[in-house]
Amino acid sequence: MSTLLRVLGPLEVWHDGVILPIRSHRQRALLTRLVIDSGHVASVNQLIECAWDEDTLPTDPSSALQNQIFRLRNFLGPLRDLLRTKVPGYVFDIDPECIDANQFERLIREAHDLQSSAPRKSLHLLENALDLWQGPAFVEFSDGFARARAASLEQEKASALERRIDLLLTVGETSAAIAAAESLNAEEPLRENPYSQRMRGLVLEGRTNEALNVFQELRNRLASDLGTEPSHEARDLHIKILRQEVETPLAFAKNSDAAIAPLPLPSKTESEFIGREVEIESIIQYVHKHRITSIVGPGGVGKTRLAVEAAERISEFNLVCWVDLSEIRDESLVTSTILNSLGVIDPPRTPSVQALLSVLRGQQLTLLLDNCEHMLNGVAEVIGQVSSSCPTVHVITTSREPLRVVGEQVLLLQPLTLAANGTAMTMFLSRLQAAGLILVEGSKNELDLAAQIVERLDGLPLALEIAAANAVELGLPAVLEDTENWRLDGGIRSAAVRHQDLNQLLAWSYELLDEQEKILFSRLAVFPGKFSMRQIEQVCASEPLCLESVKALLASLVRKSLVSRAVTSNVSDRAFSLLSTVRHFALGILAVSQEKMSIEERALIYTLEWATNLDVSLSSGEEIEITQFAESLNDLRSAYAWANEHDPERAIALIQATAILAFHRLEYEVLGWAEHEVQTRRFAKLPTRLLFAATSSAIRKGSLELAGEYAAEGLSSASSASEEAVAILGMTHFLLIKGEPRQAMEQSAIAWQAYGTSGDVISAMAHAGTVAIAASYLAEHAVADAWVSRCHELASKFPGSLTLRAYAAYFAGETQIDRNPDQALSELSLAFEISSRIGDRFIAGISLTSAVTLRARLHKTEASFDAYIHAMDSLFSAGDTTALWLTVRNIIPLLVQERPADSYALYVAMTNSTSAPPVYGQEEDTLEEAACAALNGIDPRTAMEITAYWRGVQDVEVFNFAIAVARDVARDLGNASGDQR
User: What is the phi/psi pair of residue 419, to 5°?
Assistant: First the structure.
């Protein structure tokens, strides 16, 4: 993702090509102050001073500042987490390179370092620096708190403009130098140095009289406006011009006097080059710092196009020669191909490496060797000698694997970014337009189709080019179907044949592999997502591949850009992946092999063992990160689909092993597999854990009757203490939702007693907490506190289990909501923080729901309702009907005072819904009181209309209405807060 914060002109914040609108002058002031101090803390007092003057200072400045910071974070969107609270104020912890002022100063420093050794490069950097300016620095606040920083930048800009003119003179671009100096004199007539620069430029062009006239112009201006004479330096230059003693600088020579006439770079395509600015800058920097730069990546990723774009910029300060190696098949022809591309005017009789070196010695040159992957040994041998013998020659190569020679710097080129506003989508839409297919503005359906195509094609530029070309004749739906069936061909006719068809493109790389590499490559297709070395060894290391050879083969496939190195997390060892396009090609090879079934079965066995071990670790209180489960979801899907068709018993075993993990991760798809098995009844007796998962799935959908049936069957199927603990967990979950806390309390107390036999500490914790919560609902607070203490004791016995700690904090908070709200909020926040860190969505969800409800009840503010909306949006996205109803009924009492009609509408909808869980105890009394108060706030006719409409409304409409009402309340509270300030 790319971020740019502009302060060299009006303040603008860009992220992934989209500007983040920050319209409030006060918030723009705060952000500007934080940017000036980026990386350092701006104190509360400093921020208050920049946001308010004495006349507008609010009565409570600190609270007002907190509110403004909260709003600023919202406007910053994806960058909100960079704005952090840090004593004694706030810090905007953005990468300094994301601020254009810092980029400007860096480019100025780099230009200064190169002005003697590489004046053209120095000029290029200087012009890039000046191009960053969109107007005066910190223009909105340059006469206030930003005055010092703005003045410093403006002075640097003024110096840079003069240095640019000096460099233009140095490289022989006198006309441009004279024009630039005249422009500066027009803006600042009393600025003396541009007059001297004009004089030197005119002398270099042989226009001595005009140069002398410029000096007279300067003398007249200073005399009339200031009553002074020109400086000593200007007068000395005048005398030198009169004596014809002005030195003529040597214009930067791109080349020595060697007799070569290199072939030009290939003609650019007319299509727009999109993105890759970071990569181009990296290549240019690598060329300056290293002798050999290799652009490496999979076929179709855009290596050649990137290399040509970078070479165009390099040609501004150095000669570039392009060498296309794609058509040669004999490594002995590498040298002669390079000599031919150099266009040597007096070529050697024998095109040997020594002859090439004799031509290249002394040349100031960059060689661009394109398409090297099939000639690696020959290219490596030649380039190694060029690097050691020709110090002024630099080399750029494009290939699907590195040369692996001394002095090589590799740039691994990745596909374009797949975000909604990423470069892949931007490129695809651009190519569609160029091909004549313009999407209807605002057409969400077409944009969704385009986004699916882009994601399916991995953001590979060549694949997107082919898809766009096809879309004109076939339309986007047909192209999407082709990508799903991998029937995509028909690219640009002028391109190489292998660049017109995805399969041909990948076949080119595949045929360069040896036999063992081909076998491993096809076997890796069995992994649908990221995979680990352990997976590869256990699934793929079978005859004819031996365990010892797999690592070396994998390393080779990574080097050849057929296997990608994946970004790993701190909880996963999944370090490799295949692009979707590459995986499909490999699947085609695996499908026609005789080992397809055996490899897929080995993958299933590995996944089942992995899930079983993770489940045991969780249940026994070991420290695990449940996010591992999410990273394995693709493997689980693939394994279940295969087992469902070929090995139903293992399909059941897989669901059984993942039941508790899926429950904590809220992976409803996996829980749904269990419910499907219950409904299809392939086996007469189903395991307890599967029935627990089915119960959870039914509760989530609001199907309480089915949930009760599944829970009861789970109890009857339990055949051990551990199974009984899980079965009772499902039943008590159902009983609490159904509104029978006494029964839930009794059953959980019984299950707790069996903990010593089952050894399942997670179930034991859940049962102890269930007793505590049920007792709290029944107002038996002493009992609740006693069981919360047991929860803490159990968690202390297993200090490595963050799941137990999160559970204990949640139970402590939930039981204190009515008695000690502040303590409850602290415990619930702790539970949410811990569970979010380990990826336990179940505990995070129930903690967040309770916390935001309590916070809104205690402090009815815009921030509290924003948090409430976030919680409801998350539950709505997950499709958790039961949790949504619990959240809706929590908001009903909060709306009574300001929005009685809306409060009453939600109450009517809840009491008439068949999927809403029953209400009981203190909460039932609270809701009835809220409904009566709401009725008192509306007239009878309105109440009748509300009742008539909302008693038959679908759940989805109720949830959308509740979210919309919460948004309105948050907006009203925000406006009221702003009016008070």
Answer: -60, 160
How far apart are alpha carbons 688 and 402 in whole angstroms?
54
Q: How far is CA 331 from CA 336, 382, 507, 726, 886, in A?
A: 10, 10, 21, 67, 71
For residue 784, count other CB atoms closer than 10 A to its CB.
Answer: 26
- 88: cis peptide before it, omega within 30°? yes
Q: CB-based contacts of 85: which residues, under 8 Å, 6+ apart? A: none
Mean pLDDT for 150-156 is 91
Give the pLDDT of residue 291: 92
pLDDT score for 109: 93
Cβ 180 vs Cβ 164: under 8 Å: yes
**Rounded Cα distance, 48 and 57, in Å:** 8
Treating both helix axes as pointing N-terminal to C-terminal, what angle do 444-456 and 476-485 enclose, rounded to 10 degrees? 20
Dig out the tokens for 385 from the structure. 């000698």
Q: For residues 800 and 623, is the Cβ–Cβ distance under 8 A?
A: yes
β-sheet bridge partners, residue 83: 92
The tens digit of pLDDT for each residue in 901-913 reads 999 999 999 888 8
Show the 3-state SS of 400-452: CCCCCCCCEEEEECCCCCCCCCCHHHHHHHHHHHHHCCCCCCCCHHHHHHHHH
Residue of 234, 160, 227 whose CA lies nearest to 197: 234
Question: Who wins on pLDDT, 978 or 831?
Answer: 831
d(CA 770, CA 772): 5
Rounded mean pLDDT, 56-84: 84
Q: Which residues contact residue 227 at a Cβ distance below 8 angstroms, ignoring those fewer than 6 apart?
A: none
Residues 956, 952: Cα–Cα separation, whole Å: 12
| pLDDT tens digits, one per residue of 558-567 | 988 899 886 6
CB atoms closer than 10 angstroms to residue 223: 12
Nearest Cα to 676, choosing from 699, 657, 693, 701?
693
Nearest to 304 by CA among 278, 284, 323: 323
Distance CA 412, CA 113 (A): 28
Kindly report the length of the chain: 981
